[in-house]
Amino acid sequence: MIENTFKASNVDLNYFFNGVENKKAILFIHGWQGGWEVWKHLIDKFGSYKIYAVDLPGHNKSGHLDNYDINTYSAPILEFVESLNQELIIVGHSLGASIGLQISSKLGSKITHQLLEDPPWFSEEKGKIINEKISDELINNQVVKYKNGSNFFNEHKPKWRTVLDAIYSYQIFDPEIFETNPFWGAVRASLAFHHDIKIWQNAGDNNDWAWHDAPNIAKNVEAKTYLIGGNNQKGGIMLDVIANKVSDNIDECEIYRFDTGHNVRFEKPNEYIKLLEQLINS
Q1: Phi (first) and psi of residue 79, to 5 degrees
Q2: Which residues pair with 6 in a beta bridge?
């Protein structure tokens, strides 16, 4: 599969392009700790369209930044989208969904449609997580997740010399994934081998690193939007209260919930594909 390099102002971005000529183009944006390859099953399914899939800064084969937050992640992706000089459909997961919203809010009608899968909208108030002024099970689980990841990778990643080292080590960090889906566990570990260690350091030191004012940002979105969330009791992190406010601020926006965890597209692939087809053809 053909990979390319886009030179943004402060970082090189690795991306896939399928080389297809079509008036409709899709940009896939993966989530935190992912890589563009996690979209392969959807790239194959929608291969008749022009498709781009990008590695986020600090992830997989893209270059590294000094600091990672929603704005530093988004800026080079925005440059990449602007360079394409065409209308786009955005499909983003988790952090990639938040980045998608940032981009669509800045580019008006250039982004015609977007499917945002389980963005990290688990808090409405920046900073109150860190200051412990607000607390609930979902927020606490996310804070623990970021801290545990930060501690583990800061300790283990510097010792890895090969991808095999990463795969063996990752089984300590996430034994469940190797029990339920060892192939996906190996993929996650191989991606982690290539990631910049600072993506975990930032998350561990700054527990609201993924926060952004999604309802306010949504006021500038023109794209027809589908918000897809999982079950908050099973790992889904998109809160209804935030999703509803985002939806109210976008002229054409629909919300879909599934009884899944954070990765709806893997747990409900047929339903996900049907929704994406419906969105593209609307």
Answers
A1: -60, -45
A2: 13
DSSP line for 164-223? HHHHHHHHHH-HHHHHH-HHHHHHHHHHHHHS-THHHHHHHH-TTTT---HHHHHTT--S
Residues 14-35 as b/e (b if ≥16 CB within 10 A, e otherwise) read: bbbbbeeeeebbbbbbbbbbbb
What would the DSSP string read from start to end of 30-58?
A: --TT--GGGGHHHHHHTTTSEEEEEPPTT
| DSSP-derived 3-state class of residue 269 | helix
Percent of the chain having pLDDT more than 70?
92
Instruction: Identify the helix (H) or strand (E) that includes residue 91.
Output: strand 88-93
Please tell me the pTM assigned to this model: 0.93
**What is the average pLDDT across 241-267?**
95
Whole-angstrom Cα distance, residue 277 to residue 253? 16
Return the pLDDT at 53: 98
Start-to-end Cα distance in the chain: 29
pLDDT band at 215; cut points 50, 70, 90 = very high
Q: What domains can you pick out in the chain, each with its CATH number?
A: 3-126+211-280 (3.40.50.1820), 137-205 (no CATH)
Quote the longest CA-to-CA distance of the chain. 52
Closest to 282 (Cα-Cα) out of 258, 263, 254, 256: 254
Is residue 79 scored above 80 in pLDDT? Answer: yes
Place of tokens 């994934």: 177
Mean pLDDT across the stretch 146-174? 92
